[in-house]
Amino acid sequence: MKKLLLIPLAVVLFVATVTAQTGDAGMRKDKKAIKKELKSDWKEDNSKYNKEMKKEDKAVKKEMKIPQKNAHKEMRKLEGAEVHPMAKQAFMSDFGNVTPMSSERLDHYDEFVFVKDGITRSAFYDADAQLVGTTEIKKFTDLPMHAQQKIKEWYKDYTPAEVIWFDDNDTNDTNMILYGYEFPGQDSYFVELVNGTKKIAVHVSADGHIVDYFTRLR
């Protein structure tokens, strides 16, 4: 009887051992499968990431090579003391049959002072003989009403003096220099204000919504 009992017990132990080994082998297979799957997913994701990064890098490099249309040209100092013949030709082309009252070579521009439609203006041409813009004298009352109110409020101790209107040439990205300072070329008013011996210039946008201090004149 004891022998008969031992045989089934041995069989049970053998079956349990085989089952455990089979289970371990299955778990090992599952782990390997999971690792393989994770590795495959990681490679796929990493490959996608690298592709996206390369695309982005190419896009950035491509963008860097494209010149910025709104970027202003570097200011070049003019050489010599005479107004360039090409600037004279450009002036005649831009303003028609108008004889300049005077012309002068400045550090960065060739300037032409002329009268058209009864208004005295100055035209400024850059190193490439391209029109940068024109200036003319205006009245304080020519400013947009909003700007007039702000100047009276913020600079109530000052009296308005000369007002300069700068009419920018939109097709030329060269900056303009007024009162010895460079500013981005855009249609603007420059209002000179006086308080005793003090004199300052205030910048006003064409629509009058921007009023800001520009520089001290004395």
What does this structure look like?
The chain has 218 residues and is of the alpha+beta class. The protein folds into 2 domains: 66 residues; 132 residues, Nuclear Transport Factor 2, Chain: A (Roll), CATH 3.10.450. Helices cover 39% and strands 29% of the residues. It contains 3 helices and 10 strands, in the order ααββββαββββββ. The strands form 2 sheets. The chain has an 8-stranded antiparallel β-sheet. A hairpin with a 4-residue loop joins strand 1 and strand 2. The longest helix has 64 residues. The chain is elongated. The N terminus is likely disordered.
Short description:
By secondary structure, the protein is an alpha+beta fold.
What's the structural domain tally?
A: 2
Structural class: alpha+beta
Largest sheet: 8 strands, antiparallel
The average pLDDT is: 78
List the helices and strands and how they pair.
Layout: H1 2-65, H2 85-95, E1 102-105, E2 110-116, E3 119-125, E4 131-138, H3 145-154, E5 159-168, E6 176-178, E7 181-183, E8 188-195, E9 198-205, E10 211-216
Antiparallel strand pairs: 1-2, 2-3, 3-4, 4-5, 5-8, 6-7, 8-9, 9-10
Which descriptors would you attach to this protein?
single chain, 218 residues, alpha+beta, Nuclear Transport Factor 2, Chain: A, 2 domains, eight-stranded antiparallel beta sheet, two-stranded antiparallel sheet, elongated, disordered N terminus
